Amino acid sequence: MDRDPAVPDRSVGLGAGHLLGDISDRYIIFHTRDAYYDGTDLKFVDPRTLALVGTVRTKIRTARVAIGENEIYLASEKNGTVKLHRLAMPDFSQSIVVKAKLTGVVGSFSWIEHFSPLYAVAVNKAGREIVIRWSDPLNGGKLRLYQAPVRPRTNWFETEGRLGVIGTHPDLWVSHVRFHANGSYDFEPAGMPRGFHRLGFHSFGPQSVFIAGPTNTSVFQSLAPWCHRVRLAPGRQLYLAPAVADERNGELRFRVSLDRASDAPVTFDYQAASRSAMAGEDFTPVSGSKTLAAGETETFVTVPLIEDLTIERPETLELQITGLSGAFCDDLRTPGRIRGSGMRVVAIEDGSVPPMLDGSVPTTGGMHTLDFPGGSVVARDHGFSQFVPIVGNAGSYYYARPMGSGLSR
Q1: What DSSP character marks residue 199?
Q2: What DSSP string describes 327-381?
Q3: In a 3-state reduction of DSSP, which class is residue 137?
Q4: 3-state secondary structure labels for all residues of 154-196
């Protein structure tokens, strides 16, 4: 930290029994804490002159302080129980010592994990994390409590007014909290740059997350001396949604979206790659480029499917994003799942049933008799509820199982 040597050090003049609570442009607040009796004095200090402005006397043991725009938020602790309180901004025009008029927040908690002028995160007696928004725009500017479905075991932080969480298992991950009007919340990835996932969380600031680790993540260093500053970019996170379609639908449609509109274009290249589904056999390989113009939030990538009328288990391909510019993306790949064709068809050569269907599904189970002009054949049940004889070329016969609403061919 650089300090101007021309500016002298000055003391606030409070005793050693005072703890720093919070700092704002309006006040610096110190508080006393005594383990043997209830009651805490809050000392309000001018941040420019460091002169004492006034004292607020309370009947609680203050553990945390946060200075809001029009209120002061307090957390108190007694006998292992934490309570939250709200205090109107005091008026010292009549007296420099005033008594606190506190408003309690519903609930008892075991400990505090995050405390700021915008949010508090507290763990209740059941072990659940509760997020408190002191002034919730989704609740008309009033206080609101949000409960998570599970405890994520993370470090909480704020960047540019947004609440976030950092997890370190199994790899480093960062997400912002997304609040919903029904009183719930979930997490959306904040888009850590690639190569940082195996580094360790260090600390956070108003606009950045600081990551400890080596400059080359492929080299293991248990005590790496490097610290990386990562500035998160709200509104510029790209998400790839998985896609599912039946083979007979003819296409897989992938949704690519931003969490909110960007003020500049976002561009990327894409390609469809084989996994268990093979390019040229199960789908038509595609590649290209897409642009989300300023103000847009979503686009779509379509992959044509090839219907082959053979018995198949579901297969997958992968949509891959490269050359991303203007946004972060936590995972540049997403799967596309292809379900089997509208009709599952197997050839019967010379009145015989193959022991394996499509080289993978055994013909075991109950017996079914297939009648066709010129004779009949016994087929073993492999889950088919109905068989339809189809005359093929060169004396071959087929049987098929209707899928969905009926036969597609």
Answers
A1: S
A2: SB-S-SEEEEEEEPPSEEEEEEBTTB--SEETTTEE--SSEEEEEETTEEEEEE-
A3: helix
A4: CEEEEECCEEEEEECCCCCEEEEEEECCCCCEEEEECCCCCCC
- In this prediction, residue 8 carries a pLDDT of 63
Could you say which DSSP state residue 9 is in?
P
Q: In what order do the strands lie in the sheet with 173-179?
A: 155-159, 162-167, 173-179, 185-189
Nearest Cα to Cα of residue 329 among 237, 254, 258: 237
Helix (H, G, I), strand (E, B) or coil at 14: coil
- Please enumerate, as own/partner, the contacts of 217-224 that have beta carbons within 8 Å and a separation of 24 or more: 224/199
pLDDT at 292: 93
Convert the pLDDT of each residue in 106-116 to its tens digit.
Answer: 889 999 999 99
Kindly report the three-state secondary structure assignment for every residue of 63-91: EEEEECCCEEEEEEEECCEEEEEEEECCC
Distance from the Cα of residue 270 to its chain's centroid: 23
Would you state the CATH architecture of domain 238-339? Sandwich (2.60)
Q: Are 302 and 251 in contact (CB under 8 A)?
A: yes
The rounded distance, in Å, linking the Cα atoms of 357 and 372 is 20
Q: Give the domain 14-135 fold.
A: Methylamine Dehydrogenase; Chain H (2.130.10)
What is the reported pTM? 0.55
Cα angle for residues 55, 61, 67 (degrees, 5° grid): 55
Q: Across the strands, what pairs with 188? A: 176
- Residues 88-144 have pLDDT tens digits of 999 999 999 999 899 999 889 999 999 999 999 999 888 888 999 999 999 989 999
Give every CB contact of residue 405 below 8 A, 6+ residues apart in sequence. none
Structure confidence at residue 163 (pLDDT): 87
Instruction: Give residue 387's pLDDT.
Output: 44
Q: What is the pLDDT of residue 402?
A: 39
Domain boundaries, the chain: 14-135, 152-234, 238-339, 343-402
pLDDT at 260: 74
- The ranges of the chain with pLDDT < 50 are 1-2, 35-36, 215-224, 341-374, 377-391, 393-409
